[in-house]
Fold this sequence. Notes:
By secondary structure, the protein is an alpha/beta fold. It folds into 2 domains: 117 residues, NAD(P)-binding Rossmann-like Domain (Rossmann fold); 191 residues, NAD(P)-binding Rossmann-like Domain (Rossmann fold, 3-Layer(aba) Sandwich), CATH 3.40.50. The protein contains 12 helices and 12 strands. Helix 9 links the parallel strand 9 and strand 10. The chain is globular. The two termini are 23 Å apart. The structure holds 1,4-dihydronicotinamide adenine dinucleotide (NAI). The site of 1,4-dihydronicotinamide adenine dinucleotide has 30 residues, from helix 4 and helix 6.
Amino acid sequence: MKIAVFSTYQYDEEYFTRFNSGHELTFYTAPLDSKTVNLSNGFECICIFVNDRVDADVLTDLAENGVKLIVLRCAGFNNVDVKKATELGIVVLRVPAYSPEAVAEHAMALILTLNRKTHKAYNRVREGNFSLEKLMGFNLHQRKVAVIGTGNIGQAFCRILKGFGCHIAAYDPYPNAEMEALGVTYGTLEETLCDADIVSLHCPLNDDTLHMVNKETLKLFSKGAMLINTSRGALIETADVISALKHGRLGYLGIDVYEQESKLFFNDHSEAVIADELITRLISFPNVLITSHQGFFTKEAMEQIATITYQNIEAFEKKTALVNRVGV
Ligand code: NAI
C-alpha cells in the first residue's frame, strides 16, 4: 500500500523502515493540517501522530484525495474527528497499547526527579557544589497517590507504585478487578483526589475529561501535592494550575504533555523567542518539570508501535477483523 507518513522524525523513519512489510512509504516532516493536507494526494493510507490536526475540513480533503485509511501511531485519538471520518467512510485505526510500561515508568521518573531533585543535584555537583541545601525530598512509602484512569498505562503505573509501598486510590468509570486485588481502592473522582499527595492522570482526553484539573478540583488535593500529567495536556486548565503553584496549593508539577504543545514539542526552539506566556511561566517555577511528550519514547515502544501499525494496515488490506478500529 502507498502510505504517507506525517510528522516524521529520524526515529520514526528508522523504525517504520526497519519493520516495513512491503509498503511504499513517503515520509513527510510536516504535520498534517489544512495547509499540508494535499500532500496526501494519491495515497490510500496516511500515518499520523499525536499533534496532527485531523478535523472535519481536513477529513473532507483527505477523502477527496482518495485516502481510505488513517493509521494513528499512538494510543490517543482526540486529534481526529472520528465521527466525521466514519461518515466519510474513512477507517481510523490506532495502537491502543504499546509498552504501557514506557509511559508509566516516565510518570515515575517525573515523580522521583521532582521529589528527590536529581536534576538539580546533577548540575550542582558538576560545578563542584556538594551542598544538600534545598534538596530535601519526602518518602513515597505510605503516601496517598491518586491514579485517574486505570487502563493499560494506569495499571502499569499502579504496579510500580505498589513496589514503592504507596496507598493507591483510583478513579475510573470501569474499575479493574485485578487492580482491586493488588490493593487499589476505587472511589468517586472527589474521593480519589481528596487529600492525595500525588495525583497522576492516565485517562483519555474527551468532552468529560477536558480541564478536569481546574481551580475547583485542585482544592481537593492535599496542600502542596504533586500533579503529574503524562496523558494529554488539555486534561489540565493550565492557568488554574499556575495560580495553584503561585499560591503553594500545588507543590510540584510534572508534565509530559501540554495543551498547546503542537506549536512547541518535538522541535528545537532554543534560538527563538517563545510567544506562549503560559509555558514560559511554567518553565520559570523551580518546582515544575516539563518533558516534551517523551513518555512513549523507548526502543520497546517504538518496535511495538511500528509492528502494530503494520498489522493494522494488513488487516485493512486483507479485510480481516479491525480490532484496533476507533469510532464505530
Ligand atoms: P486506555 O484506554 O487503556 O485506558 C484509559 C482508561 O481511562 C480506561 O480504563 C478508561 O475507562 C479510563 N477513563 C475514561 N474516562 C475516564 C474519566 N472520565 N475519568 C477517569 N478515567 C477514565 O489508555 P492508556 O493506554 O492507558 O492511555 C491513557 C492515555 O495516555 C491515552 O489516552 C493517551 O492520551 C496517553 N498517552 C500518552 C503517551 C505519552 O507519550 N505521554 C503515550 C501513550 C498514551
